[in-house]
Amino acid sequence: MEPTKAELLARLGDVPALVEARGLLRRRGTSLVMSQQREGAGFVFAPDHDLAAAFGAPEPGLAEALALAARADGIDRGHLRLRAAPEVMEEWCTEGAARAASVVEVFSWGGKPEALAAQAARHEVRVLAGRDPWVDELPGPMRRELEALESWPAAAVAMAGGEPVALAYAFVETETLWDVSVETTAAFRREGFGACAAAALMLDQTAAGLAPVWSVAATNGPSVALAKRLGFVPEARWGDWRLP
Asked: What does the alpha-carbon distance between residue 2 and residue 31 come to, in Å, rounded to a whole number?
């Protein structure tokens, strides 16, 4: 008998390296693709995000099961993103079950609240409470990012001239952690608006007992630099790839 999501949650640690897999396990709209060869290994399949996040060390033979799950939800196999430990990605690449492989850096927060408060004070910022009617003022792409999530996330926006130009929100949440996502309008990047929104939300979530995690492609220099500026420190690495 395959384990249920509740059983897996009881087994997996609530740690930064597993924030994505654990956060997706807690959602109703996700399913499991379990290893047939390795105990306690598999993927959490999240069709709303074209994403499958691994736990354990699932074997390359699961590629076809993932492709079938993707096809059932109308996702082309080449569009499904897979996340697992780097050594798992290397095995899948060796076996020809992966392409476009890259690395995702995972950071945990090691900063000080005073530094966050200074960042949050640089611009006008608003922390959104639930499905705040003010969300309708967000630019279309930012609003759609929030609306695509199963439940309304914690979010904050930074503004310029009274208009929202940067959004920070919790892509996933676990019992003690949340994964920071930041989006800034192109014309206002590199001016501290994204850092302002992220810092304000980090302060709000920390007060609620949730610690932030920052996950980003290793090649995304600006995002890595922003994470370090906000006080994040390297915690783990993930492999990131797509099915061939």
From this structure: 12
Q: Is 22 left (phi over 0), alpha (psi -120 to 50) or beta?
A: alpha
Distance (Å, whole) CA 214 – CA 16: 9
Per-residue HEC secondary structure of 209-233 comes to CCEEEEEEECCCHHHHHHHHHCCEE
pTM for this model (two decimals): 0.89
What the block records as the tokens of 117 is 């408060």
Average pLDDT, the chain: 92
Q: Which residues of 155-165 are buried (b: 16+ CB within 10 A; e: fewer)?
A: bbbbbeeeebb
Q: Would residue 126 be called left, alpha or beta, if left means φ above 0 and alpha means ψ between -120 and 50 degrees? A: beta
Beta bridge partners, 52, equal 45, 82
